[in-house]
Amino acid sequence: MINTLTQVQLVRTNMERSLKTVEADPMIERQTEYYRDNIRNIKSTDDFLADDRIYNYAMTAMGLEDMIYAKAFMRKVLEEGVSENTSFANQLADTKYRNFAEVFNFERYGSTTTSFSRTQEEIVQKFHRQTLEVREGEQNQGVRLALYFERRAPDITNAYDVLADRALAETVYTALGLPQAFAMSDIDKQATYLEEHLEFDKFGDAEYLSEFLNRFSALYDLSQGPQAGTSPTLAVFGNGNGIVQMGEGLLSSIQNFRLGGF
Fold first, then answer.
1. Exposure string (b/e) for 178-207, b if CB count within 10 Å is 16 or more?
2. Local structure of 120: helix, strand or coil
3. For the range 253-259, what are the long-range contacts, defined as Cβ-Cβ under 8 Å and sequence gap of 24 or more?
4. pLDDT tens-digit series, residues 195-204
5. What is the pLDDT of residue 54?
6. 49 vs 59, 114, 115, 193, 209, CA distance in Å?
7. Using the 8-state DSSP alphabet, how is residue 199 labeled?
8. Alpha carbon of 189 to those of 159, 184, 194, 202: distances in Å?
9. Could you tell me which of 127, 168, 118, 122 has the C-alpha nearest to residue 145?
10. What do you get for the CA distance between the two ends of the chain, in Å?
């Protein structure tokens, strides 16, 4: 198994080809064909929850596959929508639920909800990307974390956006070389530290993001020791394993990574 840094760079450099490989998988093709053919027939929250293939596809695409079983929970997310600040989705720390309710906004748009591109081809694209991340994670969870962070980076505006998402937080903790005990400290103190050591307004900059992901990838392998595909704090992603051999070039390259605040 190649090291995390090399694999992340390979996937990111060849993202279009990687996604096409996922899209061409026969099982993925069948799932996607069903979604494309039937999503327009979904006119309400009841319709959405009643069609398991549509529901499962959409939940996976939006990164909520681990909550597929919780239909009562997701019904509340959808029925209350996001129009009111006090709605269920707006009160949840994890912004993925609010994003889901914004895309499948039956509360506001009713039967026309699935006529928008965001519920059609955009969900298909998200499903393919999510599937790619999961498959990479089966070989190395560090790669999945890096790809997930890259996808979410444009939406990260402050430290609390990171701390509300276990996978984003794991990535940042590793990139900053923070011990596991840091995650148990006061949340506001964590936020203050992250704000001092990262420039959140620059995560939209390709060069800054690449430097961050390179730093994370190299330090991830170092933090994992011989089991670089495994992380005890990655319950959100499941388990991974693998042996990584780290050469002197990789170790010395860490010294070249610089982020704002360092």
1. beeeeeeeeeeebbebbeebbebeebeeee
2. coil
3. 253/5, 253/214, 253/218, 254/215, 254/218, 254/219, 254/222, 257/211, 257/214, 257/215, 257/218, 258/211, 259/175, 259/197, 259/198, 259/199, 259/208, 259/211, 259/212, 259/215
4. 999 999 999 8
5. 98
6. 11, 14, 17, 41, 37
7. -
8. 10, 11, 9, 22
9. 168
10. 31
What share of residues in the chain are helix, strand, coil (percent, to 5)?
70, 0, 30
Residue 1 vs residue 155, higher pLDDT: 155
> How crowded is residue 118: how many other Cβ atoms within 10 Å of its Cβ?
14
The length of the chain in residues reads 262
Could you give the 3-state DSSP secondary structure of residue 227? Answer: strand
Q: How far apart are CA 63 and CA 226, in angstroms?
A: 29
Confidence (pTM): 0.79
81-90, pLDDT tens digit by residue? 999 999 999 9
Distances (CA, A) of 224 to 9, 36, 74, 91: 19, 41, 35, 35
Q: Tell me, what's the pLDDT at 1?
A: 58
